[in-house]
Design goal:
This protein has 19 helices and seven strands. By secondary structure, the chain is an alpha/beta fold. Strands 2-3-4-1-5 form a five-stranded parallel beta sheet, sandwiched between helices. Strand 2, helix 5 and strand 3 form a beta-alpha-beta unit.
């Protein structure tokens, strides 16, 4: 069986890696590890087709180290045990673990001792954010490196190398078509290789044209420049559209984010929006966003689009309040001034004069909570954009009146 072009083009050493100069370029940490002949366990995370597997294999090849490749979802505990026995035989081994965010506790328990001893050096690969998805016990034993999106120029470089490969004998393709493939790939070099290879074998005379690419491309033609600046511009547009209550623009930018399948960025941004922009106007949106994320994780793409559409629509049309966010910023501003009196004696842990509010009528009793120099400070200013925060404002006003009584 013929190997796919994407496999044939996989780098054999660190110098063949396309992009990721911050890691493998001059003075990059991974290059320095190799030059110093010392490797550490690490987690490489980032979008699909940007070089995670390539870097992992190239590291092992460049250092002439034995390595094995496992997938946390597919391989079982027995497979890990076999790798550990091999590591003992070779006095060390690199284990490349794909989808490491799906590594369950039983498999982690087997790996942790050999990671601790150094018998196995782990290179974990994931498209998920390791700070959210990977068990702290594994994470604490690994260096964590984020791979950056590949630019269109990176993809063009890879395609120009690919058309010289012997598996694409007598290929005919012009620069305009190569650029078109690069634009369609959305920064995913593996996707670009796949498009090129399928187009090659779809043509009778090995001549690849834009028409042929369009006939085989199953994704919508959306030319997304997958560089870091534009990525964050898109996330910014998404949040600002929801904040501005423009439901149509919100759904438009959600669709654009979904085309590049960056679910983690969508999840994080929706969570921030629920608490920063919706806030106390509709506090139920925070748990609803969590429920949406859980549903998306269960069903995966493409069905994940459905709960996302429902929740983004509700976020956009919810009443808005950033009162809690602004209140905390005011509190931070006081801390940054550096002129803060001590905590009042009444509420210190050893206090014998503390009044327990639940022992009083209405679970309220007047006593000092803020430091002396901030005793009359007001951080929270209610926004009366919803019935819920209006009710909080009424309670707040009532407490303020009680505080003013002698």
């Amino acid at each position: 069986m013929n190997e796919p072009l994407a496999i044939l083009m996989r780098p054999t050493n660190i110098n063949e890696i396309i992009g990721q100069d911050h890691l493998v370029g001059e003075n990059g940490p991974i290059r320095n590890f190799i030059e110093n002949k010392r490797m550490f366990s690490m987690i490489l995370y980032g979008g699909p087709g940007i070089g995670k597997t390539s870097i992992a294999a190239a590291v092992a090849n460049t250092m002439n180290l034995k390595y094995r490749f496992l997938n946390a979802t597919i391989n079982n505990k027995k497979d890990i045990d076999i790798v550990i026995e091999e590591a003992k035989l070779y006095h060390g081994l690199i284990l490349i673990m794909d989808e490491i965010h799906r590594l369950n506790k039983d498999k982690q328990d087997i790996l942790l001792p050999v990671l601790e001893s150094g018998l196995i050096t782990l290179i974990g690969l994931t498209t998920a954010n390791p700070y959210h998805k990977i068990n702290p016990a594994i994470r604490s034993r690994c260096q964590i490196f984020e791979l950056k999106p590949l630019t269109k120029d990176h993809i063009i470089l890879g395609l120009n190398q690919a058309i010289k490969h012997k598996s694409l004998k007598n290929i005919k393709i012009d620069d305009k078509t190569i650029e078109y493939i690069a634009e369609l790939s959305s920064g995913d070099l593996r996707n670009a290789y796949n498009l090129l290879e399928i187009a090659y074998f779809s043509s009778k005379n090995k001549k690849i044209t834009i028409d042929i690419i369009q006939s085989i491309n199953s994704k919508p033609i959306f030319l997304y420049d997958n560089n870091e600046t534009n990525h964050y511009d898109l996330l910014s547009a998404f949040q600002k559209s929801i904040r501005g209550s423009d439901v149509n623009a919100s759904l438009h930018y959600l669709a654009r984010l979904l085309l590049v399948e960056d679910l983690d960025s969508i999840y994080r941004r929706m969570t921030v929006i629920a608490y920063e922009d919706i806030g106390l106007a509709n506090p139920g949106m925070g748990p609803k966003v969590d429920a949406c994320i859980n549903a998306c994780e269960r069903v995966g793409l493409p069905e994940a689009r459905i709960p996302l559409a429902v929740t983004v629509t509700e976020l956009a049309l919810s009443p808005k309040s950033n009162s809690a966010y602004l209140a905390l910023n005011k509190a931070y501003a006081d801390l940054e001034s550096g002129n803060i009196d001590p905590i009042p004696n009444t509420i210190k842990i050893s206090s014998k004069i503390y009044k327990y509010p639940h022992d009083y009528k209405g679970s309220y009793v007047k006593q000092q909570y803020l430091p002396n120099n901030l005793i009359d400070k007001k951080y929270y200013t209610p926004k009366l954009t919803s019935k819920y925060e209006q009710s909080l404002a009424e309670i707040y006003e009532k407490i303020e009146k009680l505080n003013k009584k002698d």
